[in-house]
From TrEMBL:
Biased composition (Low complexity): 149-170
Domain Cytoskeleton protein RodZ-like C-terminal: 208-272
Biased composition (Basic and acidic residues): 94-111, 171-187
Bilayer-spanning residue ranges: 119-140
Residues in the signal sequence: none
Database matches in SUPFAM superfamilies: lambda repressor-like DNA-binding domains
Protein species of origin: Apilactobacillus kunkeei
Region span, Disordered: 79-111, 149-187
Pfam families: HTH_25, RodZ_C
Protein name, entry field: Xre-like DNA-binding protein
Transport keyword on record: no
GO molecular function: DNA binding
Length: 285
């Protein structure tokens, strides 16, 4: 390698200034160019003797310059006399190595092409076999489909009668569901006055008298007596009201010793309800 320290320092200084102006560090240049850090530092210091050989001086300088925004080719041409001769014996050796590598790579590509050409007939055979298998499968599926259609046609009459019976069964189930819904509705008791209440929610209703102490009571539905008598603490009397009952009168001899429930929902006495009284229940759906 020819030695011209003044020119080499000038090249290194120009690259250093360009790198700093770009706001880049030596580590940044190393990541981009893949050139080892101590070689980059040697270039900036103008110490080209630290580089691995004459062949790499121009290559490393050009990569460095292009990375920091300097035209690498112009920089090399400007300082051509102070840089190692690229036609040195070392350069020739590197070129020879490149030629050998190129020939090896070319032979490798040809080998891959030949291998692929050999495989093509095998691929064609496999594709042909797949086409035949798919054709056989399509025929089998079509045959099975035709058989299923025939079976379905022969069972139409049976299906029709089954649907008829299913329809009747479905209607019966729907009626049961409607009846269940009507009985599942929540009973609502709304106070009108201290002795009068409106009851809604059910078609069929049951009034329950539950004694918590000694009590006398009676129940009349639409002016017809359904129950009357005395109860002791713990006694319970369920009275099922006739269908379409509109009004019920309940006479109580001791409101503090008797509870009234309609379909399991307790009637809450008004605070002004007297000890002995008559409660009127008005029913609506």
């Amino acid at each position: 390698m020819q030695n011209n320290n003044g020119k080499q320092v000038e090249i290194g200084k120009s690259l250093h200034e360009a790198r700093v102006a770009k706001g880049m560090s030596i580590d940044d240049i190393q990541k981009i160019t893949k050139i080892q850090k101590h070689y980059l530092e040697a270039i900036e210091q103008g110490n080209f003797a630290e580089l691995p050989g004459d062949f790499y001086v121009r290559a490393f300088i050009k990569q460095f310059a292009d990375t920091v925004g300097v035209n690498g080719i112009e920089l090399l041409n400007e300082h051509d006399d102070s840089l190692p001769d690229t036609q040195s014996e070392e350069y020739a050796d590197e070129v020879s190595k490149d030629d050998v590598n190129s020939r090896v790579a070319s032979r490798s590509r040809e080998h891959r092409k030949d291998s692929f050409r050999k495989v093509i007939p095998t691929i064609g055979i496999i594709v042909a076999i797949l086409v035949v298998v798919c054709g056989i499968w399509a025929v089998v599926v079509h045959t099975n489909s035709s058989s299923q259609t025939s079976i379905s046609s022969s069972s139409v009459s049976v299906t029709g009668s089954s649907e008829s019976s299913s329809s009747s069964s479905s209607k019966a189930d729907d009626k049961k569901k409607e009846d269940k819904k009507s009985t599942d509705k929540k009973t609502t008791i709304k106070e009108v006055s201290a002795t009068k209440y409106n009851v809604t929610g059910q078609k069929e209703n049951t009034v329950t008298l539950k004694a918590t102490g000694r009590a006398w009571s009676s129940i009349m539905a639409d002016n017809k007596t359904l129950f009357q008598g005395s109860q002791n603490s713990g006694d319970k009397k369920d009275v099922k009201l006739p269908a379409d009952t509109k009004s019920v009168n309940i006479s109580l001899g001791n409101t503090q010793g008797a509870k009234i429930l309609v379909n399991g929902t307790e009637l809450k006495y008004d605070k002004n309800t007297p000890l002995t009284t008559q409660i009127t229940l008005e029913f609506s759906k």
